Amino acid sequence: MQIPGDLRYSSDHEWARAEGDVVRIGITDYAQDALGDVVYVALPSVGSALEAGAALGEVESTKSVSEIYAPVSGVVSAVNDALTSSPELINSEPYEGGWICEITVSSREGFDALLDAAAYQALTT
Fold first, then answer.
1. Cβ-Cβ contacts under 8 Å for 91 (sequence gap 6 or more)
2. Which residues pair with 91 in a beta bridge?
3. pLDDT digits over 56-95, tens only?
4. Residue 89: C-alpha distances to residues 8, 47, 58 (Å)
5. If we measure between CA atoms, which residue out of 29, 26, 18, 28 comes closest to residue 43?
6. Domains by residue range for the chain, with CATH
């Protein structure tokens, strides 16, 4: 299982990568493996305001449907439209091509409070 050291993680198995005030969100390798083959992704709308912990979309797999939760508060500034036609990117590239959305935050406080790689690894073992 991959747990990149440069990311932050939520206890709900989302990852977050910050570049300035923009945080890119996806689901972890652990989560995609537990879900199985992803067949559909419901993306949030650009411009939607989200609170940390709120559902931002869902991932449907051959096993189940799972909510995706915002690990930070802010406004959705971009979505990964490639997932509409290629939802399997979540399985094959969970940390690169399988990202879900970007959220512009007003403060990095919520991002800084997320789990680091060591804490997330401890959560999943």
1. 32, 37, 38, 98
2. none
3. 999 999 989 999 999 999 999 999 999 999 999 999 999 9
4. 20, 24, 15
5. 26
6. 8-115 (2.40.50.100)
112 exposed, middle or buried (CB, 10 Å; 0-12, 13-18, 19+)? Answer: exposed
Q: What is the pTM of this model?
A: 0.94
What contacts 24+ positions apart, CB below 8 Å, involve 17-21?
Answer: 18/105, 18/108, 18/111, 21/104, 21/105, 21/106, 21/108
User: Which two three-digit tokens encode residue 115?
Assistant: 């789990």
